[in-house]
Amino acid sequence: MDLIVNSLYSNKEVFLRELVSNASDALDKLRFLSVTDTSILEANSNLEIRIKADPDAGTLTIMDSGVGMTREELIETLGTIAHSGTAKFLKALKENQEGNNENNLIGQFGVGFYSAFLVADKVTVSTKSAKSDKQYVWEGEADTSSYTITEETDSDKLIPRGTSITLHLKDAHRFEFSDPAKIEELVKNYSQFISFPIYTWQEKTRSKKVDLESDGEDEVTAHDKPSSVEKYWDWELTNDTKPIWMRSPKEVTKEEYHGFYKRTFKEYMDPQAYTHFNAEGEIEFTSLLFIPPMAPLNTEEMWHSRKGDVRLHVKRVFISDQFNGELFPRYLSFMKGIVDSNDLPLNVSREILQQSRVVKMMRHRLVRKTFEMIEKIAKDEDTQAYPKFWDVFGRNLKLGCTEDPTNHKRIAPLLRFFSSKSEDTLTSLDDYVERMKENQKQIYFLAAESIRSAKNAPFVEELLNRDLEVLYLVDPIDEVALSSLGQYKDKKFVDISKEDLDLGGEDKTKDEEVDKEYQNLCDWLSKCLGEKVAKVEISKRRTSSPCVLVSAKFGWSANMEKIMKAQSFGDDSKAFSQLLRRRTLEINPHHSIIKGLNSMFHDETSSAEAKKLADLLFETANLSSGFTPDNPAEFGRRIYEMMGLALGAKQKAASTETSSLLEDPAVSEGKSSPVSSS
């Protein structure tokens, strides 16, 4: 008893779920037996459960009109912990081959009854079996190892058939669980879909006319009498909501699905989509899934399953709504719905889903059905349907690229990006592939902070000149998502901001001549820049910029470097710094600045001016390529110095021009003639 009270159950509220489930099993057994023997229903034909909370007495009573128990059954089931009467009943059915796979019996472990001692220090069970004419009372206490069974002799306490369980609540739980409103809430949460009616004892109000004494002159009519509010107690049906998922999808209307979604998940907007299906095979379950219309307001909740989003039922009894990836992966945590199974692997407390092959199969089917819903939205005739979904849950699918490799083929067609040929509207990878050039074998992309930044980057110039489409990845997770995918329809994703970009069509003979002419400049620049670059080489990109700074093939792009530097727990170690410096400076030999620097290099290899220009060239390329300057202040100082030199040269030229004009005789005469004429 100690083990059950303190170890098996983590939530004390489940005691009512367990006791109501036992009552439901008793009613199901009676219904099954009545098929062959209708006389057992003569005492009471109503199959129902009633729950009465008494705040004054500090008790809670659960009554059912089920099959009841004999004295021997009381000893066998309640007198023995972990002996399941339901399990024994099912075994007998199987042996007699009279049962079928559609039974609705809930009990499995024979410990549900003892959950009553989570909140009660004493439990009294009064029961009368349909097979006996005697009624017995079982009584046990939490801190003892014994119990008593006596025959009920009080005529006022006799019942036609069934079981009545009275919990004498502990002082710590007396106020909470003797509250009728709390009991109603628990029934609606855990047992509202039980197939038998559940009534709870509730306080109600009604209007009552007040009698007034007549003075003999004016007769007081019923209409003139004032009314007052009268309080009274009565039974109220608590589980009037029917399990919509147990009905055939053909019989349920769209309005009914939407109404169920709003009531169950406390939403005020209709879902974007829903699916209702029955899974058959090694595991059988019914599910009703919804895609919500909007994301949670709390960003943290966007990436983690929240309480109440996916409700797990076993034979219509609510088990749990708190999961950690058992039913849906993290990137699909926005899903809402109901999952109901008859043979789900639960632990003894029926609170925790056990990890097993069956659970993995269930998860696989739920994920597959979710993707089918999303694909249906993407193909919807309403062209605004999928953009609406994408605005809300697009990042979730991108996260799926990194977390769920097994579903890459399902996720990739659903992704959307901006591109050089679709700057205003999102485009799919399928559309990109359709627009590809005949001999194009790669999908080009560039990660940047904005579309404007991407389309003005020096990396895209040559591709745009060749009419090659470039995907603009402006969301921080985009680059990681495409890198995780690797390829789409046998077309590899290529980051155009990295080295070894091969667009084809180059004149190799001409390139070799240029390489030979500028090789010494490359070596000199590499020596001047030192550890700032991994190497300097001639660029194959035909750009309007004198040079670009590209990342190593397996290094971080400029965009990724910014993202990683912004992480709270970023790595500032030496290895991290070395990784960041794996960049290549590609110079454009056709640009006037590079040509001029090459000439200066030949004439003044060791001049300080040449080295300053080399540093300024690198830092400008570093900035224009999207990287952050290591020393912004130093970079600014060099720009100011260059501006000063330019202004100084301009002033010197203007001064020289003025002096030349003054020394010109014709100019001198022109100035003196007006004086002489005067």
From TrEMBL:
All copies of domain Histidine kinase/HSP90-like ATPase, residue ranges: 11-173
Q: Which SUPFAM superfamilies match?
A: ATPase domain of HSP90 chaperone/DNA topoisomerase II/histidine kinase, HSP90 C-terminal domain, Ribosomal protein S5 domain 2-like
- Give one Pfam family: HATPase_c_3
> Would the keyword Ion transport turn up in this protein's UniProt record?
no
Q: Does the keyword Chaperone apply?
A: yes
- Secretion signal, residue range per the UniProt entry: none
Q: Which GO terms describe its molecular function?
A: ATP binding; ATP hydrolysis activity; ATP-dependent protein folding chaperone; unfolded protein binding
Q: Where is the composition biased (Low complexity)?
A: 668-678
Q: Where is this region: Disordered?
A: 654-678
Q: Which domain of life is it from?
A: Eukaryota
Q: Which residue ranges does UniProt annotate as crossing the membrane?
A: none
Concerning its family, UniProt says: Belongs to the heat shock protein 90 family.
Protein name in the entry? Histidine kinase/HSP90-like ATPase domain-containing protein
What species is this protein from?
Physcomitrium patens (Spreading-leaved earth moss)
Q: Which gene is transcribed and translated to give this protein?
A: LOC112272693
